[in-house]
Every structure is written in C-alpha cells, then in structure tokens.
Design brief:
There is one protein chain. The protein has twelve helices and eight strands. By secondary structure, the protein is α/β, with parallel strands linked by helices. It has a single domain, classed as TIM Barrel. Strands 1-2-3-4-5-6-7-8 form an eight-stranded parallel β-barrel, surrounded by four helices. Helix 1 runs parallel beside helix 9. The longest helix is centred in the C-terminal third of the chain and has 17 residues. It is globular.
C-alpha cells in the first residue's frame, strides 16, 4: 500500500505568513509529474508543530484536492496528547487521505507501555491505515522494536516510518512484525540501504527538490537493481546530508525557493530562515547533486 519514494512535503507560506495554497498546488503537480509515489502532508517537514488545527486540516484537505486521485496523500496526525492525535484522525477521516502518519508523543517521554496505549487508542477511533513514526532525535522517546511488534498486531496499524538511522533495526522489525508489515525509512542518508535490507521505501526530505531522481532510485532499488540505484544515491548524498545543516525544513525550503518551486523560504518561529553561513553549503550540495 505504501512504498517507494514518498515526499515529506513542505508547507509553503506567503510573505505575510499565511499558507500559500497556489504554491502548494504547484508542489503537488511537481510530484505527480516526477513520479513520486506518495505525499505526506503536514508532517514534521510540513511544520505541523506551528500550524493551527484549522490550517492543519485545510492544508491536508487541499493537498488531497490538488492531488485529485493522481497520487496518494498521507496526513500527519501526530501529537503529544493522545486526545489531540485522535481529534486529527477524526477531523481528517473524510477528506480522502490514504493513511495517517503519527509521530511518537514528544516532550512527555512516555514509557513503552504508554506508547502502546497511545497508538492503541488512536487505532480504535479510526479505520484509516496508521503509520507509526519513530524519530527519537526530535521527540526524546524511542519506540522500541518490541513495542512496534505489539502494535503491528492491531488491524489498522500497517507500517512504521523509522527515522533512527539504525539499519540493524530493519531485520529486527521484520522478524518481529512479519512480512506484511510495511517498513519505511525516514532517514535520507541511509534510505537506500534500508530498502536493500528489506524496507519498502522512504519518506524523504530530499524528495522535495529531487523528486524524479528519488522516484527513479527507489524504483530501481525495489526492482533489485542496486548498482544503478547506488549511482543516483551517491550523487544525491550531499543533499541527504546538507539539507540538515540547520533544523529541517529550514534548508529544504530555501532550496525549493531557489529552484522556483515555492515563492519564498518563509518559515514559522521558533524556526528561522536559512542563515547566510549555511546558504553556500546548501547551494553547493544542490550543484553537486546536479539538480540546480
């Protein structure tokens, strides 16, 4: 159901800080034309933490509208309060999304049992397929493989986005969760290796500005053509690394603006636009990757 090259889509803003829906439509069309396999709307890269509830729901709904059935849309629905994550799942249940991506509760630092009960409560409130999202570097909590295995037994929890970068977990998750459970990388630098080890794809930041390359690389990898996939991956590696030279999505929004995909690199506080010191680093990575 979920595989290949999935973009963790940025949310563009106008100069006065409102959501730029014209640019959002342009981004959706760009990904359809490039062959991207899916869109995550309002995930971490989409600045979910700084959108209002109303904006969050509207951006997802508009992304589905702009996609018009041409590409599946997954909604970011995670929150650090279980009731809030449930609310997002309910509010978005009828807009046409293919699934929900739910990050582990941040700041609270729940136990493994707390994480299990959090996701169980969400799964009981919706029939929409749920993708677990583990990114300890941002949330301060690690969803362990044994807990993922418990959750994979619930009917509508179908996948995991693993952004730990720990490749040893791929086999561990496969052993514990079975062959039908979908494993997606959330780390561009190790995404191809993740697929080589048995993952089904990557939810990617790099994809925002190198969509066609990411789509081709993932298709080659899923076809077992790893040597050809490696050639593309090595070329994109400067992006995989330097799009995180400052907190994401700061660098990728600047890069997308430079490519003309969005009107500006506006980002909401407490994040700020790309620093003057970092701009040459990102620009060099774009040149090395042959995308600009």
């Amino acid at each position: 159901m979920f595989s290949g090259s999935i973009v963790a889509l940025i949310t563009p803003f106008t100069l006065d800080g409102e959501v730029d829906y014209a640019s959002l439509k342009k981004l959706v069309d760009y990904h359809v034309e490039a062959g991207t396999d899916g869109i995550v709307a309002v995930g971490t890269t989409g600045e979910s933490a700084t959108l209002t509830v109303e904006e969050h729901v509207k951006v997802v709904a508009k992304t589905v509208e702009f996609a018009n059935g041409r590409i599946p849309v997954i909604a970011g629905t995670g929150a650090n309060a279980t009731h809030e994550a449930v609310t997002f799942s309910r509010l978005l249940s009828n807009v046409g999304i293919a699934g929900c991506l739910s990050v582990t509760p941040y700041y609270n630092k729940p136990t493994q049992e707390g994480l299990y009960q959090h996701y169980k409560a969400i799964s009981e409130e919706t029939d929409i397929p749920q993708i677990l999202y583990n990114v300890p570097g941002r949330t301060g909590v690690d969803l362990l493989p044994e807990t993922v295995a418990r959750l994979s037994a619930l009917d509508n929890i179908v996948a995991l986005k693993d952004a730990t970068g720990d490749l040893d977990r791929v086999q561990r998750h496969r052993e514990l969760c079975g062959e039908d459970f979908i494993l997606l990388s959330g780390d561009d630098s190790t995404g191809l290796d993740f697929v080589k080890l048995g993952g089904q794809g990557v939810i990617s930041v790099t994809n925002n500005i190198a969509a066609a390359d990411m789509a081709k690389m993932m298709q080659l990898a899923l076809d077992g053509k790893f040597e050809e996939a490696n050639i593309i991956n090595e070329r994109l590696m400067p992006l995989h690394k330097n799009l995180f030279v400052e907190s994401s999505p700061i660098p990728v929004k600047w890069a997308a603006c430079k490519m003309g995909l969005i009107e500006n690199g506006i980002i909401r506080l407490p994040l700020t636009e790309l620093s003057e010191q970092a701009k040459p680093i990102v620009a060099k990575a774009m040149t090395e990757a042959c995308i600009y």
